[in-house]
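queue> holo job accepted (fe (iii) ion)
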Amino acid sequence: MATKLNIKDKYRLLTRDLDWDFDYQDRKEAFPQEDFEGIKITDWSKWEDPFRLTMDAYWKYQAEKEKKLYAIFDAFSQNNGHVNVTDARYVNAIKLFLTGVSPLEYQAHQGFAAVGRQFSGVGARVACQMQSLDELRHVQTQVHAMSHYNKFFDGFHEFPHMHDRVWYLSVPKSFFDDARSAGPFEFMIAIGFSFEYVLTNLLFVPFMSGAAYNGDMATVTFGFSAQSDEARHMTLGLEVIKFLLEQHEDNLPIVQKWINKWLWRGYRVLALVAMMMDYMLPNKVMSWKEAWEVYFEDAAGSLFKDLARYGIVMPDYVETIAKEKEHLSHQAWWIFYNFTHASAFHTWIPSAKELDWLSEKYPSTFDQYYRPRFELAAEMEKAGERFYCSGLPQLCQVCQIPMGFTEMDNPTLISYRDSVYKDDRYHFCSDGCKTIFDDEPEKYVHSWLPVQQIFQGNCGGADVETVLKDYYRINMGADNMEYAGSPDDLRWKAWKGVA
Ligand code: FE
Ligand code: ZN
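queue> job finished
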């Protein structure tokens, strides 16, 4: 009688014995991307399997979670769960999530499938395959959770189309495009380590707690359902970095450069989360500044202390980010307030109570630099002159965010950097983005910058309205513009019986 294997042995057999020797092909040719980044792997057998989950256990476990999750989705829609959120302004936060974040889950699914193919170590291959499956499930459950909102609110209807075209969605999209067009080890440091391990709490916790604080049980539930996957993804991210650093000392400078780059890239994408936390949640969880302190400064502080024994140091620009935490969300929201006519969600000026909350959370900057601006905008709106910027902004060549961030020693001065490459001048929002460009200009000159593409006539029309309507598929007057008086606002008031 065969003895029953325990799960650890099963996993060892799965990841090690699934490999085979190449007798009529050169192993190096079978894994052509494993060398070109300069990473040296001396012994793949030293790879520690981070997931320890066999395929049969995986399917059983995920199916269980799925059953519970979809039962809650059903209950949510049968009970008209959407009318229980704090107010309809909240829904704009999940419009941003569906259009900006869920497609990244799909990008992660494709990315992990692709890099898994490139590793000659079978343990890493299997781990990437499993994460790839998780990510596919994440995008599916998110789309299903939010499909309910699509029946009652504007702005959800064209999310994959918009992700590929709309200017602000180019920020998260280009982040993942950048990672997926890098080599396999850089992808793992970019997504597995920097994103999943270092920054993931700053993306998911704010959205999921935001949902919990604002009565959105559908979103809370998919968050919980993804959490056990996240734990495995974080373990993989940490295993990758330790493995690379233990394999060869020549890997250290390469890995350090990637950590610096991807911390900054990820942080720039999080500008969207910062403004979501401080401006889009009617019931606030904590400020962006507090979140950065808890989830980066405290948590990553001890992580980098751990990594110091390999020679890894804290990424560049952490000091800049620490200064920017006083400004980031206000500057980002102001950009969107100015360009809401070109967005698939609404913006608004915070209420008097919300302005006071911001003053309290940002005592050294808010009243001095931002409150007067918002109060002026509120006055203009009251006078029937709600402000929209009619021009198109210059974009950073690397992070693709409009040039709205400022110098930290003079927060009224827009921060501009530039570099010349092959006789053309390129523009950046920061030293971080400029450094990334200068290291690989031949990559970033290819960036698909939405504003430049509009001006070059590649976005369906010669005027902004045609671009928004036909190329972006924005439902004009419904998806975009000010929240107050929008169809979302009017429907919400009608449901609630408010005049
Ligand atoms: Fe995911
Ligand atoms: Zn930038």
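queue> The chain has a mean pLDDT of 94.
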